[in-house]
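Support request, priority: normal
Reporter: lab tech (M.K.)
Component: structure prediction queue

Hi team, I submitted a job for Type I-E CRISPR-associated protein Cas6/Cse3/CasE from Parasulfuritortus cantonensis yesterday, and the status page still shows it as pending. I've pasted the exact input below so you can check whether something in the sequence is tripping the parser. The sequence length should be 261 residues. Please let me know if I need to resubmit or if it's stuck on your end.
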Amino acid sequence: MARRQPTGRRRPPARGTAMHMIELPLDAAALTRFAWHQGHAAKQGYSDEDFGYAAHAWLAATLGELAPRPFRLQETRRGLRLLGYALQPAQHLAEHARTFALPAALAVCDWDTAASKEMPTTWHVGQRLGFEVRACPVSRGERERDLYLVEVDEAKASGREPANRSEVYGTWLDRQFGQNEAAKAELITLAGFRRVRSLRQSRAGQDHRHHGVERPDALFTGELRVLDPDVFASLLARGIGRHRAFGFGMLLLRPPGRGGT
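Reply from support: The job had stalled in the queue. We restarted it manually and it finished. Here are the results:
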């Protein structure tokens, strides 16, 4: 059987279409074995530190166009937990996987304990929501760069002190919410930051090669106010920023006024 390749971009759901939050418990060792046997592994000492590429490849091979996107991986005491937004409930995804997935791919997830809930289909102008999002704040010039490092270089060139990382990333996130007037961020906190080395695949003809890429990994919490309900619904389904297919950009909602992660 030919190996299924990760799928491309997916259109956001049509207005009023139900969206489901999916929770899939994953076995980290089984996920690593699947990625290795499918050829999604580095050969020059690079590692997929956040399992982003492995999860991306597994979702594509197991669920195809039904795969949750955006998604986020979280470590738990029992292993990995994948949260994501999908157009079908967990039961439908489990049936699809049991019918079509290869045995090694099926074994990555405990489908019996997979869960889901239907998200609201309508939002309201002025509605306040708490949020948490893991995002990758990078520039989109000739080559991708950490936005904070861009700020440092620009400040040095102009002889001024650079803004701090929280301010640079917070301004970027505020712009993401403001695109097409989806929402207005009223509070943004950089709750965590690290630089993570992720695995990516490049193609040269028919040759598929893997390489490691280091990127900023920022965890934000805060509160927002909905400006345009339809645009906000599209933003929620699409996700925030770049590399959404690899575990970045899923906007998790919580009641306003609730802090912490």
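The chain has two domains: 20-118, 128-254. The helical segments are 28-37, 52-63, 90-100, 103-106, 147-158, 165-178, 229-238. Let us know if anything else looks off. Ticket resolved.
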